[in-house]
Design goal:
four-stranded antiparallel β-sheet, mainly beta, 33% strand, 17 strands, single chain
Length: 252
């Protein structure tokens, strides 16, 4: 309750006037903010189902037909932007499984078991990365398959129809979250992961990237295995060079 003008307790009146002043300033600030808030509205996103089947754990973006629009790659397919309706096969989409439909009939479904099947399942494509690996000006696709398996990359056919040519980078890619980034500082990315009990990075001969990549072991042998979870890459020491880390420590 604010003191009136005849109230002998002038402090109350002063506090009342101060409150009114603060409310007035707050109102002006809010009005000004609302006047500029139009630039910060949250815009709605449109969800596009490029494929209802489960082909991969993740996807990536590139410009595979060099038309200036971003394209989407998930599993064995890439989808041409900007509407992602045209679908193109990179490698054979041969996986399928059986399930009961709503009428109780057994049907064959493309892809791997997942949400659509009502049970747990994993794909053979855990991660993929987009990079022009052979420096021909066309985006290629590197696939990190099921943990413990090989990591192939697929060569963009430069707009020609048909499957993409497959090359093997490394034979054993362990860990469920391998990285593909520049750890050597040469401006080009390397595969960083566990492999056969070690932390490694693997790099191609950039003049012949279709040949097997060179694997560099950067730790002593440990207990890491195909389903090891979690790893990180970053400059921990602040020396400008990226380091490797996991839950137990880091390697410089």
């Amino acid at each position: 309750m604010c003191a009136g003008p005849l109230d002998p307790g002038r402090r109350g009146g002063q506090r009342c006037r101060m409150r009114r002043f603060l409310f007035m300033i707050l109102g002006l600030v809010c009005t000004a903010a609302l006047g500029q808030a139009k630039d910060f509205y949250v815009h709605d996103w449109t969800k596009i189902h490029a494929n209802k089947h489960f082909w991969a754990e993740g996807g990536a973006v590139g410009d595979f037909n060099r038309d200036g629009y971003g394209d989407l790659v998930v599993g064995p397919y890439w989808y041409a932007g900007p509407d992602f309706k045209a679908r193109h096969e990179i490698y054979p989409a041969v996986e399928s499984f059986e399930m009961k439909d709503k009428d109780g009939q057994t049907v064959k479904v493309p892809g791997f078991p997942g949400a659509i099947s009502g049970r747990n399942g994993y794909s053979a494509n855990f991660l993929c990365y987009v990079y022009d690996l052979n420096s021909d000006g066309w985006d290629d696709v590197l696939v990190m398959g099921f943990p413990g398996k090989e990591s192939p990359w697929f060569e963009n056919p430069k707009g020609k129809p048909g499957l993409w040519k497959k090359h093997i980078s490394i034979n054993v890619t362990d860990n469920e979250s391998p990285h593909f980034e520049d750890i050597t500082g040469d401006g080009k990315p390397e595969i960083i992961c566990n492999s056969e009990g070690y932390f490694i990075y693997a790099e191609p001969n950039w003049d012949e990237p279709e040949k097997p990549w060179t694997v560099h072991r950067v730790t002593a042998k440990g207990k890491w295995q195909r389903f090891t979870h979690g790893m990180g890459v970053g400059d921990i020491s602040g020396d400008g060079r990226k380091d490797i880390m996991d839950m137990n420590g880091w390697w410089e």
